[in-house]
Amino acid sequence: MTDGRPGAVLFDFFGTLVPAGPEESWDEQMRRLAEPLGLPVDVVGDGFTRTRPQRMAGTLDFATSIQQICAGAGVPVTDAQVEAAEAARIASMRRWMTPRDVTLPTLRRLRDAGVPLALVSDCSPDVEDIWPTTPMAAYFPVAVFSSAMGTRKPDPVMYATAYEALGVAPEHCMYVGDGNSNELTGAAALGIRTIHLDAERPERPGADYEGASWTGERITSLAELPALLDL
Question: S-S: 32 plus which of 68, 80, 88, 134, CB 3.0-4.6 Å?
Fold first, then answer.
């Protein structure tokens, strides 16, 4: 698409609508999970990182991943311990899934201008479950989650599912994301106008983080988006 108003905007979630990481550090998150399990923080952190691809693809739920981590460490675990760890995880995710200050005003501006919106997120099943309870969900008639799709960005099906559901061709869409999951090049390869939101850098960037090397369009706040779209 050319500069100006798009037919639809597809948004990434983490690092875009909400911060790249929760207020508590990675170590603090893992400490909250490890405490009810009686495991060292590094054991839980390593195991949680190792099982992330399966959780993102929806092939492994949180409880099963915790059970596998405990089994690998040779530590028996009760259902009550798993439930306590899961409760800690959900509480952490709810805190993390709080919109940036500029998110809701920006979404409202786009909606009021008649621009259809879709969410395209790599996430675990717990995020998919929490999403409808967030204030952001009301702005998105379409939400595509990797945990439901069984695949992750930059797989073209993630983007295509969103723009096809909105009835808008890719060349008339815009994608906004922070650059994880090679999502920017994935969107651009489909002819989608792609914007890097460079608001912050992730605490623990993975090998598939491309925000630092992106040479295309870039904004530093979602508040810049309406002007970029001539709204």
Answer: 88
Binning the chain into helix, strand and coil, the percentages to the nearest 5 are 50, 10, 40
Dihedral, 31, 100, 131, 170 alpha carbons, nearest 10: -120
- What is the reported pLDDT for 5? 85
Which residues are CB-neighbours of 77 under 8 A, at least 6 positions away? 37, 66, 67, 70
Q: pLDDT digit string (tens) for 38-97?
A: 999 999 999 988 998 999 999 999 999 999 999 999 999 999 999 999 999 999 999 999
Residues of the chain with confidence (pLDDT) below 50? none
Helix, strand, or coil here: 121? strand
